[in-house]
Amino acid sequence: MARLGSWIDAQPHGIYVPAADVWIDPSRPVPRALVTHGHADHARGGHGQVWATPGTLDIMGVRYGQQNAHPVEYGTRVELGDVAATFLPAGHVLGSAQILLEHDPGSGTQRVIVSGDYKRRADPTCPAFAPVPCDIFITEATFGLPVFRHPATRDELAKLLAALAAQPERCVLVGAYALGKAQRVIAELRLMGHDAPIYIHGAMQRLCDLYREHGVDLGDLRSALDASKEAMRGAIVVAPPSALNDRWSRRLPDPITAMASGWMRVRQRAVQRNVELPLVISDHADWDELTATIREIAPKEVWVTHGREDALVHWCQSVQIKARALDLVGYEDEDD
Ligand SMILES: [Zn+2]
Ligand SMILES: [Zn+2]
């Protein structure tokens, strides 16, 4: 009997599937790529052909221009050589998918899931992660340490609204990654009843437009560049983390600097960025979500792509699941 997963070749630059002649999330240009989602560490430009969800392909279009693209809807099975690939929701950002690969190496069909990045809690901007049984679950481990436990998103955003209400002559400047986090924070605030205009940095405009085209309600968004200082008093302003401490923010009325990131759990990271109001909001599974997901899926093996691999591998072994770290390069989570 063929060893489990012998047809999956985990190389430093991505996962290669010879029987389909495709790579998954390769970190350099390849002839044929399956892409889990639009973050730059997973989606690169310059591939010959790309299979991805319509949302991911639209994001890649904004970032890299037109792709030679094969759109795949969630739940649709595509045949690639001797392998069937199905894209399933990952709950990470717009268009994000886990990829289920099915192949018979001669001893019966094996099912392998490449999760990409994922989370388990609700996100108004994308469908929820679908736990699907498989033989090998290839997972991320960005927050794969027991110290990482993300609090409830609404509790974090309630702190933001309270800060805004307490100091109405100032604004709250929220640093949030431009793809995913920014739109999720805005959409959650709308669901919490915050319907005032929200001001955004120019770097977010096209991605916010794209989310809207995909049916995500972001309410009244305005350009921070075009607004007066007076207009932004008592308002929420959202900008990429890189803009928090640069000249751009000087146009704002005495900003309370906030940042929405899973890394805000680490005090030093908040201090480094001069963040007054750290908001622990992540688009990745925390430790409890990672371990609960593995228990739920109950795979025969777990392979860990990137993040804090060691603790998760050790945990899997402690519950009698075979596990190993893949030494992939180039997965620096820009998103968090
Ligand atoms: Zn990501
Ligand atoms: Zn990632």
Task: Please specify the SSE layout and strand pairing.
Blueprint lengths: L8 E3 L2 E4 L4 E3 L7 E3 L14 E4 L1 H11 L4 E3 L5 E4 L2 E7 L7 E7 L6 E5 L21 E6 L11 H14 L5 E4 L5 H11 L6 E3 L4 H9 L7 E3 L12 E4 L16 E5 L6 H6 L4 E3 L7 H11 L3 E7 L1 H10 L3 E4 L11
Parallel strand pairs: 3-4, 4-5, 5-6, 10-11, 11-18, 12-15, 12-16, 13-14, 13-15, 16-17, 18-19
Antiparallel strand pairs: 1-2, 2-3, 7-8, 8-9, 9-10
The protein binds zinc ion (2 copies).
One zinc ion (ZN) binds next to loops.
Structure report:
With 336 residues, the protein is an alpha/beta fold. Helix content is 21%, strand content 24%. It contains seven helices and 19 strands. A seven-stranded mixed β-sheet has the order 7-8-9-10-11-18-19, covered by helices on one side. It has a six-stranded mixed β-sheet with strand order 1-2-3-4-5-6. The site of one zinc ion has 6 residues, from loops.
Question: What's the short story on this structure?
Answer:
The chain is an alpha/beta fold and 336 residues long. The protein is built from 7 helices and 19 strands. The protein folds into 2 domains: 181 residues, Metallo-beta-lactamase, Chain A (4-Layer Sandwich), CATH 3.60.15; 127 residues, 3-Layer(aba) Sandwich (Rossmann fold).
